[in-house]
Amino acid sequence: MIETELCAYSVDACLAAARCGVTRAELCASPWEGGTTPSLGAIRLARRIEGLQLSVMIRPRGGDFLYSDGEFRQMVEEVRIARDEGADCVVFGLLTADGAVDAERTARLVDAARGMQTTFHRAFDMARDVDEALEAVVGAGCTRILTSGGCNKAAEGAETLRRLVARAAGRIALMAGSGVGAANAAELAATGVDALHFSAKCFAPSAMRWRNPRVSMGGLDGVPEYAALCADEGQIGAILRQLEKNGYR
Q1: Would the CA dihedral through 32, 38, 44, 47 be positive or negative?
Q2: Is 25 among the domain residues?
């Protein structure tokens, strides 16, 4: 049966995942940067949730996936912290300047994560060649790859996902992510991937009555100052029902 993973930007989202029966939560911070390493406090609280596997994002900043020596040392330390806190999995992705998977550093993170699963995230989709990237990630010893098939959305990369599943031939798990919802969950599961990754995003309006129109804390257009990003249990449930209806759960 296919696994499911919620991209969770809060402990509350992890709780929603557990209530709905999702296999695993990927805990991240900084949604507007595509996810960075969450706080120690968030990791500890999420780890206490029963019946939910916990993946922890290891990403020192937003932007590209070419990291300095100092940033890499930070990633190694964050992997060790996640392991010490009892996480089931850590999630990372590293590329070289010419767009290849940084296999040497990836293998070092896998070694630091001993005892945990490891997911190579969608840095994979930014690589110059996904077939070459798959072989490099397999060689580095990762447990799974999160991918949209090299496209912006997983539905657009469905044929590439099928091809990657065939190429992997059971050597590594493939997890489809980006734009996954109830309308396409069964279609993506049919590509043969081992898991689906989704965020089920919604926004909870702020309870603030006083709102200062002159100050923007983030300073970025499109980032809501008076709403919190949440996971919609209705959306999560709809995805799981579609998978069950089509025999994938």
Answers
A1: positive
A2: yes
